[in-house]
Amino acid sequence: MRCLVTGATGYLGGRLVPRLLAEGHQVRCLVRSPEKLRDVPWATDVEIVRGDVLDDLGEAMRDVEVVHYLVHSLHSKDFADADREAAENTARAAARAGVRRIVYLGGLHPEGVPLSPHLASRKEVGEVFLRSPVPAVVLQAAVIIGSGSASFEMLRYLTERLPVMVTPRWVHNRIQPIAVRDVLRYLVGATSLDANRTFDVGGPDVLTYLEMMLRYARVAGLPKRRVLPVPVLTPGLSSHWVNLVTPVPRSIAKPLIESLVHEVVCREHDIRELLPGENVGYDKAVELALTKSRDADVETRWSGASTPGAPSEPLPTDPDWSGGSVYTDERERRTEATPERLWEVVEGIGGERGWYSFPLAWAIRGWLDRLVGGVGLRRGRRDPHRLHVGEALDFWRVEEVERGRLLRLRAEMKVPGKAWLELRVAEGERGGSTYRQRAVFVPKGLAGHLYWAVVWPFHGVVFGGTVRNIANEAELHKNFRKS
């Protein structure tokens, strides 16, 4: 079938596309930034259309038989209105284009009780599709367990970093988690499902969140966790705690936790009869996710999606002529290491390796960013060795990669302006190689100019140290090989 996948740069969309292709379907991807799909292994096997679910979707829907709708506006304050408008626009466009089916993944929720804003919005989007002239398969899932998912990362870091766990009342609510591979199997199977209804999807285990943490600890080989009940810890306060302890920012943690306030257990299992197959149990799903994480074999991560409010414009070709003030910090260092070895160090920057200078300064900047609602420094990286355009790298976003020559990063931390960091590798004139580094900052208003004035004195230590230590690291490896 001819399928349109919205949200192809996201956590589930990026995994669904290759599985649809493997089943013989033709795939078109609707994305706001096509360049983010440039480096994925299946990029040449799909058609990529630039656009947004709030735009005119006539061209995106042309000749499409099935639409997989995997987008939502979780971060924005008015996300419910935005999601409703986007769903209605998609449903109208699908009807006009003669689409045969819409497949949507919503949230599992109880009936007859007030829902959290997040779950209420997911339910409303599903209802929009079910009311439309186009038949819709609305899958409803609770917590998805898979390497790189926000739910799994929150569970993982809370359990691993807290040998004594402070537990609010909601951790005793029952949940029916599901492995990401089973969610994807259902999404692929729903492509050919003749129905117009909701389907609850879940794994074989029904657990409390506390039981999920304790069983995670057992599977991960951690010492037994101690539990300290704190019934007054509200979802809002819990989200601050998650923001402090895990890489998941409060903007994502808050709606996730608010959803856990409800018991989310499947009321029916009809999908198992229509799409038979054995679902993965919770312990096995955790084991698989941990293996993928430890082997650096994570297909997609929650942080792959763009961060709302963060600058999205690319670095101007000539920032000095882009209008307004531009501040730059440029540094260069020659090294005896080969360009190939120097590039290995450059592309491996961030994550567990850090930023090669003054770790405390980077850590403090990350903490300050988290305190003001930013993403902080703990998003890490998907792969320890290779970077792709569009991926998150700590509090940066990879804007450009020219393998062996250039790595350009766009800042997503909270700053009064727009910032980029370029790392370049060139062959040396008399052998060896040259490392060039350029930081660019375009201030916004007086606050932006004051910000640059405050941080400028630290650049010699931080950026200067980065240049020196990257070159030293490349040479150290070179000398080690010689010995």
TrEMBL record:
InterPro entries: ComplexI_NDUFA9_subunit, DUF2867, NAD(P)-bd_dom, NAD(P)-bd_dom_sf. CDD domains: SDR_a2. Residues 7-109 form the NAD(P)-binding domain. One of its GO terms (molecular function) is protein-containing complex binding. Residues 297-335 are annotated as: Disordered. This is Uncharacterized protein YbjT (DUF2867 family).
